[in-house]
Amino acid sequence: MIDQIGLVPFVGATVLTAIPLYARAVRGRNYATFGFVILALSLPGLLIAHYRLRQTAPVDARLLLDAFFAYGIAAAGAHLVGLVHARMRPTAFRTLVSIPGMTTVAAGALAGAWLLVMLPIRGALLALGFEPLLHTLAWVDLVPFAIAAASVATSVRISEEVVRIPLGEDGPADLTRQPVSRARRRAIRSPDASSLRIVQIADPHLGPWQSVEQLRRRIDSLLARNPDLVLLTGDFLTMEGAGTPGALARSLEPLAGLRGRCFAVFGNHDHESPAEVRAALAQNGVALLVDDEVVVDTRIGPVQILGAEYVGRGRRRQLERLFARFPRRPNHLRLLLLHDPSAFRHVPRGATDLTLSGHTHGGQVGLLSLGIDWTVLKRSGFPDHGLFARGTDRLYVHRGNGFYGFPLRIGVPGEASLLEVVPPQALST
After folding, report:
1. I want to staple 202 with a disulfide (CB 3.0 to 4.6 A). Which of 113, 182, 398, 422 is the partner?
2. What is the side-by-side strand order in the sheet with 386-390?
3. What is the pLDDT of residues 218-231, one digit of tens each?
4. Are 379 and 362 in contact (CB under 8 A)?
């Protein structure tokens, strides 16, 4: 049978058929549907791209091309099988199965979209009699795979930054992105007496791309910046992280020495394993704020921190109740932890000095790596990353310490930032 239909189509058909059947038998219909949809979005692009590349590849390179595509598709299938019993896997499994498998899925989805974009162009060239040009341009089928490879490099890279956020100045009436001072790889220095030093941990997504050891190292590196506060804005786990009791607690152990200075809110993914996240935070002395407040004394004075629980609906009413319950405290800097920045539109004007969010992964796809402040979310008006102003209110959207699932951070690296927040009274000194 393999000789009749070819190795890659055979592997693709086997994976598309066997994985959902196995998943349904062991884990249930919902996960079987999830696996089928992922494969159905990826495999057509992979199989068509493989066929087209094979037609133009040298004969002695076709066996290698077949092996490359077959391995990627098989790895994707093995990764999805692993998620039937989701847990953190050893380095060898992540390196040889999960990472190439998820990269293959991402490349297949991109290849399918790219082939659709190119279809009318190819049709027009063929209709105009430029068939030889089509063969000359066969290399363009490699574009989505080059993008997928570049996205892996961007996805695993994290930018170490010091971000200075001045507060108190009046800004535009509507939420507008503001220029922000970012110093990359600045040497650790003594705290500025006029600023509050905050480490924000956002969207670490413990899983194949973020191991326990890696997250611990990243937190250790951030804590070496000597922050006044560590604020965690949610989305700690993937399916693998959620399926491994105690993994998140081990990842967050560096925070245990900063009890009384670490505060967190839930993100949307945390509601998939709330008990695991609660236990990990509590074990390491991180206070979880569920529509609650805390007041902390710092070098620059008292700080009032409000934490908004993540909710999918009724956000306006939730935030109205939160601010009614906890009014501004005089002479306190007021911060809000809000996982999803789209809910910021429901924050009453003047209700906070600074809101910290994540969730967007910086917009996921954009041109930040080229120094151009653009992402796919920008035109929608969605606050994707960076600093925004609305009157005297400020919103900072963190690009995240990780990402979920597939390596589709294209041109938008994550960040590991120290935020130097300059309170209003310090602006005039």
Report:
1. 398
2. 176-178, 386-390, 393-397, 354-357, 333-338, 301-308, 292-298
3. 999 999 999 999 99
4. no
